[in-house]
Amino acid sequence: MKKVAFYTLGCKLNYSETSTIARKFQEKGFEKVDFTNRPDIFVINTCSVTENADKKCHKVVREARAISPNAFIAIVGCYAQLKPQEIADIPGVDAVLGAAEKFQLLDLLEGFERPAAPKVLASEVEAATGFNASYSLNDRTRTFLKVQDGCDYSCSFCTIPRARGASRSDTSAHIVQSAREIAATGGKGIVLTGVNTGDFGIREGRREERFIDLIRALDHVENIERFRISSIEPNLLNDEIINWIAHSKRFVPHFHIPLQSGSDRMLKLMRRRYQRNLYAARVEKIKAALPDACIGVDVIVGFPGESEADFLETYRFLNELDISYLHVFSYSERDHTLAKDLPDKVGGAEKSERSRMLHILSDKKNRAFYNTQEGKIVNVLFENDVEDGYMHGFSQNYVRIRAPYDPLLINEIVSMKITGILSNLLAEGAEIQAEVLPH
């Protein structure tokens, strides 16, 4: 029995796909092992959103080869699709599989004998037309369920359409079936993932369903206590979706909505499909319908052409929004993007300073949001995250809460009162014994 180890770089979507590929190996009799357990095969699922993600791939390959010098190393994922030959040139790599090939890994690399030269099995991205259903399992309390892949947008900074192909989706019926399979394993929470999740419903180039159709269907899946949307574009998050979630039995009040810039001029350069007024209206609508909702925001600093005035416009816009935290990214130049050829590049020191300012703002926003939750009763899904005698979990609106360790509460939802705020990212909770939810 050959041993196989997996390593995932990047997004929740990658985690769902790695987990599914791992199960395919186990079904064929392979033993899944830890990365350090001298495997016979390594499968590394890559990201290529930033230059740093590329560098991480190189480092993971070096570590894998050091751990198991004679192992077979296969690279899949976005970096593998975008630059297959560059990866094949990394010392120690045995095979590179593109977007259309990665789920055929077991068939294409039968035997996993190390070749004299790396195998490059990467078709043009146009060949990636099928949808490969995926979800993570047994990796953590929350399950990542893939509902959509690819993207038809053309944001000037993004390589994902070249790495994953056109937008395409599973069917609502099949996703509901997958959710029931997850529930049967004891999973309590599911995060819906995709490249452009809100664009769900396209199959063979035609829109056959809408995202609202999917979440309505999932709301009836029994034994899944929570569904969460990983990220959704502001132009796709309409009032109908917000109103539905406000009255949903299972969808939680947590929204992660990419903004990227609070300057309309920069949004136009980025080729985003909205302006800041629409974004502000979405936040206002959410807070009106769900006052305790947690709202996270993606922001890029240092995009080509971003002046100090543009950045300060973004800062002021975010400061005035009723949001809960920021994910801040420094612009990273990527090959084959329109942004690479834009003039007026922003220097590294300026990018770092802008990033620092937004991280401070994020801490301020997160602390303010947590303070509004003190004294409230929330439902906490506890994870197997134990430290110094405390266990940790998340409320329905994404407040991270600690409580004294009790092994019986792992992967259970418990009614708790938030008794204090320990930091920007942690609150104290006390169990209300009479209100423990039924399991």
Task: Using brief descriptors, characterize the structure shown.
six-stranded parallel β-sheet, five-stranded mixed beta barrel, Rossmann fold, 13 helices, pyruvate-formate lyase- activating enzyme, alpha/beta, single chain, 439 residues
The oligomerization state is: single chain
Overall pLDDT confidence: 93
Give the neighbour order of strands across the main sheet.
Answer: 2-1-3-4-5-6
Q: How many structural domains can be distinguished in the coordinates?
A: 3
By DSSP (H or I, 4+ residues per run), the number of helices equals: 13
* CATH architecture group name of the largest domain: Alpha-Beta Horseshoe
Explain what the structure shows.
The chain is of the alpha/beta class and 439 residues long. The chain has 3 domains: 3-127, Methylthiotransferase, N-terminal domain (Rossmann fold), CATH 3.40.50.12160; 142-372, tm_1862 like domain (pyruvate-formate lyase- activating enzyme); 377-435, Nucleic acid-binding proteins (OB fold (Dihydrolipoamide Acetyltransferase, E2P)). The chain is 32% helix and 25% strand. It has helices at residues 12-27, 51-67, 78-82, 84-88, 105-108, 160-164, 172-184, 211-218, 239-246, 264-269, 276-289, 308-320, 348-373; strands at 3-8, 31-32, 41-46, 72-77, 95-97, 119-121, 142-146, 148-149, 168-169, 189-193, 202-203, 206-207, 226-229, 254-260, 294-301, 325-330, 377-387, 390-395, 400-404, 413-423, 426-431. The chain has a 6-stranded parallel sheet, with helices on both faces. Helix 12 packs parallel to helix 13. The two termini are 38 Å apart.
